[in-house]
């Protein structure tokens, strides 16, 4: 241990106290030993340090900070150097606000387009997500503080996220859902990892020994700190045994006592606690070094805003450019229509909400441009209500213009932490506006603002489509510079856009509604499924247009690298994202048709050629073998492909690779769907063959009394009339608020109440309601109204007495 001398001076109570927060955002301190609190803050795309009352849902304002584009946006840049630069600037701002641990980046896979938090995640591909995350982490930690990669692991839906059990086979877990974390730990050297809320194959992630010990600690040699997601601790002692050091937020000493009792009873060895304390002390002391300077650190807001603009410019994706309608030429008469032009949608909702230092607006940008602006109309109501007068005014304006710039997308209440989207559509009133505008002016360029994939049955009504995603506080300027040609678009999609939601591989098994969610599609998520099963898509993974063209040639392949020539054959400078995919010709083990194994963004002037080399690392040819329980390489011939997208393969070369001669892990006859790759609706018997065990029961046992891990939603089945009444009041309030247009408030009910497990009431109230009080609530829910009420009030009185005694002793 690094801090043995210090740990030996601590009492058992002091060691236990370090294992949970001092308050909502700070760790516990021990003043007599010189151990200070450190501050943790949300920060995937900007520092969210709340100035006053703390919460984890983004309700209360935070200190102003630069709002960079979200991870889903920057992922489209495919530029790891840019990611590192963003991380560096995030780190500088964290230091200026005295934040020791920045809670990000998020690297969970985009298993399904409807996951409400997809805007916070990079990609549907683990290699891509891992490389981008590692770059962010290196940048953040270059400033002396810690990043905290999250949410570990297989947290791919928001509904019932605090109690859902993710059922996934071991190979898929390793290859798809853990590889990005592996890269973040190995290449990013993240000092902290945040465990997710969900269960994984039967055990909560923060107490899942296989995940936390066998893989994270033993296989990856991670020696940093594991932090629970806020309120994500279930059994505190089991969490410590698994190696989960820090529980957040505070539980006002309740779980500290559980640790003490476990050691005194022999359930927990004190050596395990010491090991956890030692790792936490390392995090505390190493991050404190960033704050040794005595003078106040102030960051340059304008310089940071410029970096946010650069990030947005490299991440914008040009999806359609019919008749070369873009870039807009000087003197073009342009009508700007769409509420999002006036009120930009530039970030997600929930714990990642940033209070921006500056916020650019499209209507300010147009004044400085070379185009002729004929006017602006909002055209539609932001939250979906039809407005005939706004539509008519927008059409009247469109008649005066050469080109209509139509700003549409998803609103803040649709994409939010804690909720999954209901469908892949944009609001009907926006589509109605587009269709009506197309009747009076065929020259429409859509500027899309949303953080995840959507259906576009209306795309034939547009000549141009620019996807800004959620482009941060400088996004409006960045988008306008692309529209006018000051910037040549160079972003490419880091996720596939299917034609319809029904085409997605997880369609039949998303989300898990009650006890479990089954990942029956296995390895086949995103392009791995569409390309293998030959399912047509709207836009493939890795797709994006430019104002210039590129030619590939002269491929040379070895097991260590790929080399080829790249030429800009157009008349303007631009950046091309070259992608390396590898496919195995053998069919002994089922695999996707191709998988991303390398990429590089290359700048070329008009007419310029460069020789490009992309290295192939240890992940290029490997697969996880469930028989040997380790990574293996199959002896086979592999196709090494260079593409401009996953379907636009420009060069290909075959290569024979000598493998590790491991036994074949599967019986091909028993897994026909997986070998065919058409895994969007696998039957339970075949899924069980893949798992190697029976699938757990997916539905609630309504005959059992409600317990700690049951949710408020399950009160609809409670024996207690009071609990059922409470459930109906909650659902009525939710429906009523949605009906009157208070969608964000309605969402809050679902996020913070409806899907909350009973234990979460204790874990997220800072000790104001503790587990003994929750016992009283459960008695009420299970039909013992008066007994439960007496129990709750007695425990509440006892708690208040404890607080009074503690304050008097201080």
Which keywords apply here?
single chain, 810 residues, alpha/beta, five-stranded parallel sheet, globular
Separation, N- and C-terminal Cα atoms: 32 Å
Separate helix tally:
25
Backbone structural class: alpha/beta
Number of strands: 26
Q: For the largest beta sheet, what order do the strands appear in spatially?
A: 9-14-13-12-10-11
Mean pLDDT: 95
Summarize the biggest pleated sheet.
6 strands, mixed
Give the overall silhouette.
globular
- Helical amount: 25-40%
Q: Which spans of ≥5 residues are poorly predicted at pLDDT below 50?
A: none
- The proportion of strand residues reads 15-25%
What is this structure's SSE topology?
Layout: H1 4-7, H2 12-17, E1 40-42, H3 71-74, H4 80-96, E2 101-103, H5 126-141, E3 146-152, E4 165-167, H6 170-177, H7 179-186, E5 192-195, E6 199-200, E7 203-204, H8 209-219, E8 225-228, H9 236-242, H10 254-265, H11 270-288, H12 301-315, E9 317-321, E10 333-337, H13 339-342, H14 362-365, E11 372-377, H15 388-398, E12 403-409, H16 428-440, E13 444-449, E14 464-467, H17 475-483, E15 497-498, E16 516-518, H18 527-533, E17 537-539, E18 550-557, E19 561-568, E20 574-584, E21 595-604, E22 609-615, E23 622-625, E24 630-633, E25 636-643, E26 649-657, H19 672-676, H20 684-691, H21 721-739, H22 743-754, H23 758-763, H24 771-781, H25 785-809
Parallel strand pairs: 1-2, 2-3, 3-5, 4-6, 4-16, 5-8, 10-11, 10-12, 12-13, 13-14
Antiparallel strand pairs: 6-7, 9-14, 15-17, 18-19, 19-22, 20-21, 20-25, 23-24, 25-26
Helix pairs in contact: 4-5, 4-12, 5-7, 12-17, 15-16, 21-22, 24-25
């Amino acid at each position: 241990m690094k801090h043995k001398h210090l740990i030996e001076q601590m009492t058992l109570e002091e060691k236990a106290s370090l294992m949970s927060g001092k308050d909502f955002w700070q760790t516990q301190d021990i003043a007599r030993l010189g151990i200070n609190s450190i501050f943790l803050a949300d920060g995937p795309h900007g520092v969210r340090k709340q100035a006053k009352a703390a919460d984890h849902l983004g309700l209360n304002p935070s200190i102003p900070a630069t709002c960079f584009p979200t991870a889903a946006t920057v992922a489209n840049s495919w530029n790891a150097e840019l990611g590192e630069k963003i991380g560096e600037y995030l780190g500088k701002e964290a230091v200026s606000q005295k934040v020791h641990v920045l809670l990000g980046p998020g690297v969970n896979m985009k298993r399904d387009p409807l996951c409400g938090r997809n805007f916070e995640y990079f990609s549907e591909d683990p290699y891509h997500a891992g490389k981008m995350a590692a770059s962010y982490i290196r940048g953040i930690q270059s400033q002396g503080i810690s990043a905290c990669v999250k949410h570990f692991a297989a947290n791919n839906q928001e509904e019932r996220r605090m109690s859902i059990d993710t059922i996934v086979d071991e190979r898929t877990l390793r290859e798809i859902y853990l590889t990005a974390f592996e890269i973040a730990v190995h290449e990013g050297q993240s000092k902290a990892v945040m465990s997710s809320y969900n269960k994984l194959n039967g055990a909560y992630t923060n107490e899942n020994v296989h995940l936390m010990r066998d893989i994270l600690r033993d296989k990856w040699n991670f020696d940093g700190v594991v932090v629970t997601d806020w309120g994500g601790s279930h059994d505190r002692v089991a969490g410590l045994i698994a190696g989960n050091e820090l529980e957040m937020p505070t539980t006002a000493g309740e779980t500290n006592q559980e640790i003490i009792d476990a050691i005194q009873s022999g359930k927990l060895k004190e050596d395990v606690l010491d090991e956890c304390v030692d790792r936490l002390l390392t995090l505390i002391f190493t991050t404190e070094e960033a704050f040794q300077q005595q003078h106040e650190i102030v960051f340059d807001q304008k310089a940071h805003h410029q970096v946010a603009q650069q990030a947005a410019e490299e991440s914008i994706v040009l999806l359609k450019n019919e008749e070369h309608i873009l870039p807009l030429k000087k003197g073009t008469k342009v009508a700007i229509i769409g509420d999002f032009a006036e009120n930009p949608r530039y970030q997600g909702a929930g714990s990642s909400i940033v209070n921006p230092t500056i916020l650019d607006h499209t209507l300010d940008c147009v004044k400085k441009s070379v185009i002729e602006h004929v006017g602006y109309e909002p055209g539609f109501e932001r939250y979906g209500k039809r407005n005939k007068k706004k539509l008519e005014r927008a059409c009247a304006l469109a008649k005066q213009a050469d080109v209509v710039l139509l700003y549409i997308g998803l609103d803040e209440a649709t994409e939010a932490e804690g909720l999954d989207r209901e469908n892949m559509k944009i609001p009907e009133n926006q589509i109605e506006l587009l269709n009506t505008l197309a009747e009076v002016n065929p020259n429409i360029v859509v500027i899309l603002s949303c953080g995840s994939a959507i259906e576009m049955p209306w795309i034939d009504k547009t000549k141009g489509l620019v996807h800004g995603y959620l482009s941060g506080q400088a996004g409006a300027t960045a988008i306008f510079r692309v529209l006018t040609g000051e910037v040549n678009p160079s972003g490419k999609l880091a996720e596939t856009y299917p034609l319809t939601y029904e085409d997605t591989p997880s369609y039949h098994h998303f989300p898990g509604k009650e006890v479990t969610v089954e990942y029956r599609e296995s390895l086949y998520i995103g392009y791995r499924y569409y390309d293998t099963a030959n399912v047509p898509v709207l836009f493939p993974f890795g797709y994006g247009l430019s104002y210039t063209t590129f030619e590939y040639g002269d491929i040379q392949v070895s097991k260590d690298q790929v080399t080829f020539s790249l030429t800009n054959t157009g008349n303007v400078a631009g950046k091309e994202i070259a992608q390396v995919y590898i496919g195995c010709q053998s069919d002994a083990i089922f695999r996707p048709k191709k998988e991303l194994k390398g990429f590089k963004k290359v700048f070329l002037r008009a007419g310029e050629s460069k020789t490009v080399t992309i290295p192939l690392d240890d992940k290029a040819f490997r697969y996880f073998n469930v028989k040997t329980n380790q990574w293996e390489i199959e002896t086979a011939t592999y196709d090494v492909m260079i593409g401009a997208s996953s379907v636009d393969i420009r060069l290909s070369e075959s290569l024979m690779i000598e493998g590790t001669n491991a036994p074949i892990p599967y019986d091909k006859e028993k897994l026909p769907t997986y070998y065919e790759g058409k895994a969007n609706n696998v039957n339970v018997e075949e899924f069980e063959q893949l798992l190697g065990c029976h699938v757990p029961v997916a539905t609630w046992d309504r005959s059992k009394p409600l317990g700690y891990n049951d949710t408020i939603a399950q009160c609809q089945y409670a024996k207690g009339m009071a609990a059922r009444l409470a459930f109906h009041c909650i659902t009525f309030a939710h429906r009523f608020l949605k009906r009157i247009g208070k969608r964000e408030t309605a969402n809050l009910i679902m996020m913070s109440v409806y899907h909350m497990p009973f234990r979460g009431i204790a874990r997220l109230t800072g000790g104001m309601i503790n587990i003994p009080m929750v016992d009283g609530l459960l008695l009420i829910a299970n039909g013992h109204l008066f007994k439960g009420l007496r129990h709750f009030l007695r425990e509440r009185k006892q708690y208040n007495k404890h607080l009074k005694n503690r304050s008097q002793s201080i």
